[in-house]
Amino acid sequence: MSASRSAAALTVAVVALTVALAQPAFAATTITRADLQGTSVRIEGSGSSPNAPLTVNGGVLTGQADANGAFRIQSNSFAQPADCVVTV
After folding, report:
1. What CATH number should be reported for the domain holding residue 30?
2. Which end of the chain is more exposed for a tag (fewer CB within 10 A), N or C?
3. How many CB atoms lie within 10 A of CB 47?
4. Domain residues for 40?
Protein backbone atom coordinates (compact mmCIF):
# COMPACT_ATOMS: atom_id res chain seq x y z
CA MET A 1 0.00 0.00 0.00
CA SER A 2 1.44 3.39 -0.96
CA ALA A 3 2.12 6.09 1.61
CA SER A 4 -0.59 8.35 0.18
CA ARG A 5 -3.13 5.52 0.26
CA SER A 6 -2.13 4.71 3.86
CA ALA A 7 -2.55 8.35 4.80
CA ALA A 8 -5.96 8.44 3.12
CA ALA A 9 -7.05 5.29 4.98
CA LEU A 10 -5.90 6.78 8.28
CA THR A 11 -7.75 10.03 7.54
CA VAL A 12 -10.94 8.06 6.88
CA ALA A 13 -10.42 6.18 10.15
CA VAL A 14 -9.95 9.37 12.15
CA VAL A 15 -13.07 10.94 10.62
CA ALA A 16 -15.05 7.75 11.33
CA LEU A 17 -13.77 7.74 14.91
CA THR A 18 -14.70 11.37 15.41
CA VAL A 19 -18.22 10.80 14.08
CA ALA A 20 -18.63 7.59 16.11
CA LEU A 21 -17.58 9.40 19.27
CA ALA A 22 -19.88 12.38 18.81
CA GLN A 23 -21.07 13.39 22.26
CA PRO A 24 -23.21 16.23 23.56
CA ALA A 25 -21.86 19.74 23.01
CA PHE A 26 -20.54 19.98 26.56
CA ALA A 27 -18.06 17.14 25.94
CA ALA A 28 -15.71 16.57 23.03
CA THR A 29 -13.55 13.66 21.98
CA THR A 30 -10.25 14.86 20.59
CA ILE A 31 -7.74 12.88 18.55
CA THR A 32 -4.32 14.33 19.34
CA ARG A 33 -2.28 11.84 17.33
CA ALA A 34 -3.08 9.29 14.64
CA ASP A 35 -0.15 7.61 12.88
CA LEU A 36 -0.08 4.65 10.53
CA GLN A 37 3.37 3.94 9.10
CA GLY A 38 4.21 0.53 7.72
CA THR A 39 3.13 -1.91 10.40
CA SER A 40 3.11 0.67 13.21
CA VAL A 41 -0.12 2.29 14.36
CA ARG A 42 -0.62 4.79 17.19
CA ILE A 43 -3.81 6.63 18.15
CA GLU A 44 -4.02 9.03 21.10
CA GLY A 45 -6.71 11.33 22.36
CA SER A 46 -8.96 12.43 25.17
CA GLY A 47 -12.60 13.06 25.98
CA SER A 48 -13.92 9.51 25.88
CA SER A 49 -15.98 8.08 28.69
CA PRO A 50 -13.84 7.08 31.69
CA ASN A 51 -12.42 3.56 31.31
CA ALA A 52 -14.13 3.13 27.91
CA PRO A 53 -12.97 0.12 25.88
CA LEU A 54 -11.00 0.78 22.68
CA THR A 55 -11.12 -1.45 19.61
CA VAL A 56 -9.47 -1.16 16.23
CA ASN A 57 -11.02 -3.02 13.30
CA GLY A 58 -13.42 -4.96 15.48
CA GLY A 59 -10.83 -6.13 18.00
CA VAL A 60 -7.57 -6.56 16.09
CA LEU A 61 -6.17 -4.13 18.68
CA THR A 62 -7.82 -3.44 22.01
CA GLY A 63 -7.21 -1.12 24.92
CA GLN A 64 -8.96 1.04 27.47
CA ALA A 65 -9.24 4.75 28.17
CA ASP A 66 -8.04 5.86 31.57
CA ALA A 67 -10.19 7.19 34.41
CA ASN A 68 -9.98 10.70 32.89
CA GLY A 69 -11.07 9.59 29.41
CA ALA A 70 -7.59 9.84 27.85
CA PHE A 71 -6.62 7.02 25.51
CA ARG A 72 -3.63 5.64 23.66
CA ILE A 73 -3.46 2.49 21.62
CA GLN A 74 -0.49 1.35 19.58
CA SER A 75 1.13 -1.65 17.94
CA ASN A 76 4.28 -2.27 15.96
CA SER A 77 2.80 -5.31 14.19
CA PHE A 78 -0.41 -3.93 12.71
CA ALA A 79 -1.43 -5.27 9.29
CA GLN A 80 -2.66 -2.31 7.25
CA PRO A 81 -6.27 -2.83 6.22
CA ALA A 82 -8.02 -1.17 3.27
CA ASP A 83 -9.71 1.02 5.88
CA CYS A 84 -9.38 1.35 9.62
CA VAL A 85 -12.19 1.78 12.16
CA VAL A 86 -11.53 2.73 15.77
CA THR A 87 -14.26 2.53 18.39
CA VAL A 88 -14.02 4.16 21.81
Report:
1. 2.60.40
2. N
3. 18
4. 3-87
For the chain, report the end-to-end CA distance as a whole number of angstroms.
Answer: 26
62 three-state secondary structure: strand
How do strand 61-64 and strand 53-56 relate by DSSP bridges?
Answer: antiparallel
Are residues 54 and 41 in contact, defined by beta-carbon separation less than 8 angstroms? Answer: no
Q: How many residues does the chain have?
A: 88
Report whether 39 contacts 77 (CB < 8 A): yes
Secondary structure (3-state) at 42: strand
Q: Which residues contact 8 (CB under 8 A, 6 or more apart)?
A: none
